[in-house]
Amino acid sequence: MTDKEYDVIVAGGGPGGIAAAVASARLGAKTLLIERYGFLGGAGTAMMVNPWMTYWAHFSDGKEIQVINGVLQELVERMEALGMYGHPKQRTAFDPEALKVVAEELCMEAGVHLLYHTFLGGVKTDESGRKVESMVVANKAGLVELKAKLFVDTTGDADLAAMAGAVVEKGRSVDNLMQPMTLNFRMGGVDVDRMPERAEISRRYVEAKTRGEIDCPRENVLWFYATQPDVIHFNTTRVILKDATDPWELTQAEIEGRRQVQQLVKFLTREVEGFEHAYLQTTAPQIGVRESRRVIGDYVLTADELLAACKFDDVIACGTYPVDIHNPSGEGTIMKHLQPGEWYDIPFRCLIPLKLDNLLVGGRPVSATHEAHSAIRVQPIAMAIGQAAGAAAAICALKDRTPREVDIRSVQQALTKQGASLGLDTRAF
Fold first, then answer.
1. Are strands 85-87 and 323-326 parallel, antiparallel or unpaired?
2. How far is residue 116's CA from residue 128's CA, in Å, rounded to a whole number?
3. Where are the domains of the chain?
4. How far, in Å, CA of 398 to CA of 413, rounded?
5. What does the pLDDT look like over 385-411, one tens digit per residue?
6. Tens-digit pLDDT profile for residues 118-164
7. Which residue spans within 112-184 are E strands per DSSP?
8. Greatest extent of the chain over all pairs of C-alpha atoms, in Å
């Protein structure tokens, strides 16, 4: 396949990109999905972020409502069929290898054109600077120019939007520092039944830090069960004061993450029951990035709106994940939860960048404050946002509309037909 012109081009094959490309292709748009690696999944595979964070609204009486469905649910069901989703003690754990396979199958079945090993290198706009005419990518063929009517930025770092001239921000308002990065890793050969309680492992970790045996600016040990019975997944390294959009600092972050992993492995095998014969099974191919650029769009979502469970007429996705801010400069994590049974809306206007007319943002860099971003950055929500961006892009491309001109009801109807949940049928609860 050597086509260079499409209705919709989706840049980035992570959770948001998968959902965007599938949604677009299913609506009949000729859709290209480009990905820098040789597989899809992004945060769930390349960064090995696991498990998926909650996508239910939980009521005080034990009742719950699943607020994100659509492409997310399709991926879940396909991984379940492979026996590679869920753990008795970790409901949303999944095998990254399974995600690679089922995401690829879903895209191909929808008619998405896939292009791997392709890195975004530049953007060309028209004379007004408001319309993206093409993007320049680098791959084995050299520099290649690709054209589309609509573009969807699902790079995670808003690379496409930034190159096109969108207004972007980074980090918290006081000093522009961003949430820390984490290199995820897994230990195999663990005798899970002999592991101490979480609090006890963290207590020993703090003692080891006090003795100078561990140099990691995280306050505790964060671990999860994996789908394999003797594997434990760690989200514990913390790399601070680095910018994931700076290639030099990103390189330093990768090196620092691996250094921290080695210290943690030594600590676990020496100090924690159940890990005496465990081994480092794998580190993620890429360090996990919580925050980098955020695009400023037609509406900026705030944490107060999320925590108040605000609803919007132009809702295109829902979420329940709490405000979760890892200290950008050291220890400490802030968590602020919603009231039981509540969820928040994400409005379509957050996906439309200022100063651009034919580009939509899918995934975590949508228009939100630093604090609000800390809640909506997780994979299930990124997937819901991506599905909305892809559906809207397809409708705009096929009807010759801009995102600001599109009838939001047509987007909402398309999403509902594709199985997405917008909370519109559950608001009586």
1. unpaired
2. 31
3. 5-173+291-417, 185-283
4. 16
5. 999 999 999 999 999 999 999 999 999
6. 999 999 999 999 999 999 999 999 999 999 999 999 999 999 999 99
7. 113-115, 119-125, 132-139, 142-153, 168-170
8. 65
Tokens (6 digits) for 283:
């580190």
Q: Please name the residues in contact with 77: beta carbons below 8 A apart, sequence gap of 6 or more.
A: none
Q: Which residue has the tokens 């604090």?
A: 371
Q: Which among 294, 216, 286 is positioned nearest to 247, based on CA atoms? A: 286
Question: How many whole angstroms separate alpha carbon 12 and alpha carbon 157?
Answer: 10
Q: Distance between CA 321 and CA 364 in Å, rounded?
A: 13
Indicate the pTM of the whole model: 0.96
- Residue type present at position 247: P
Single-letter amino acid, residue 301: L
**pLDDT for 420:** 97
CA distances from 421 to 86, 380, 414 (A): 22, 12, 11
Q: Which of 379, 391, 408 is nearest to 319 (CA)?
A: 379
CB 184 within 8 Å of CB 235? yes
* The two three-digit tokens of residue 47, written as one number: 């960064």
Say how far apart CA 231 and CA 225 lie, in whole Å.
7
Opening angle at CA 73, ends 68 and 74, nearest 5: 145
Tens digit of each residue's pLDDT (9 = 90 or more) over 18-48:
999 999 999 999 999 999 999 999 999 999 9
Q: What type of residue sits at position 302?
A: T
Q: Specify whether the CB–CB gap between 390 and 22 falls below 8 A.
A: yes
Of 28, 8, 10, the residue nearest 19 (C-alpha)? 10
CB of 70 within 8 A of CB of 415?
Answer: yes
d(CA 119, CA 122): 9
Q: How far apart are CA 385 and CA 323, in angstroms?
A: 17
Domain spanning 5-173+291-417: CATH superfamily = FAD/NAD(P)-binding domain (3.50.50.60)
First to last CA, the chain: 49
CA 248 vs CA 119, 121, 156, 231: distances in Å: 17, 17, 18, 33
Find out whether 115 and 139 touch, Cβ atoms under 8 Å: yes
Give dist(CA 180, CA 250) in Å, integer.
11
Structure tokens at 184: 């995820």
